[in-house]
Amino acid sequence: MANQKGDLTVAAPNFALASTVDTSQQVRALAFPVAQWQETLDDAASGRFSFDLPHIYGGKFDSPAIRSALRTLWALCDEEGAPSRLLARAAGCEILAELCRLGGAPFRQVRGGLAPWAERRCLDLMHARLSEDISLDELAAEARLSPFHFVRMFKRSLGVPPRAYLTRLRVEKASELLERTDLPITEIALEVGYSSNQVLARVFTRHMRVTPSDYRRAVRDPVRYVAMS
């Protein structure tokens, strides 16, 4: 099968897929180990989930929802290095849900957002473990929901996916530490869950439109910073 730039293709579980691609193009692949996802899929489908979706396998297709999820995933992988467990799992839920919808096997619908107690417990966990690679499964367990349903209900309650909300918390905490402490930026990066000051700089700059170093200078001596700018 010949693929063009932007084509999406799905290989069936336990089957290989051969494809020819122009050497000037880049191929990016995402794998979903069935054994690791079966229980989550069963719960989302309210019964034993089957991967018998023949008309989406092998051929090329288009899905704005999957394209959007993949763009976010690839961009964050490039920005943060190895993707966090939260990011990888949340992206997997979103992509698999759309593939199943396209294949004629949609999951049961979820109505409403998180219960107040569930929202509070999840946000408390995020704040308490800001420096850790917290997983989607851990957050979902706090709300007593499956990962699939948790992602959707969290977004309905907070307006953004769990991964985006966690990034916001990390940037806010980094801003606070830059303002109120003299900690080196490398230590601040580790404190808010990033592996290096370079990763923090990329994330921080994207959200704040200024580097961590410049942000610290601006809040410490705004008059001098403006004059230098």
Automatic annotation (TrEMBL):
GO MF annotation list: DNA-binding transcription factor activity; sequence-specific DNA binding
Keywords tagged on the record: DNA-binding, Transcription, Transcription regulation
Keyword hit for Metal-binding: no
Residue intervals of the HTH araC/xylS-type domain: 120-218
Top-level taxon of the source organism: Bacteria
SMART domains in alphabetical order: HTH_ARAC
Name the record gives this protein: AraC family transcriptional regulator
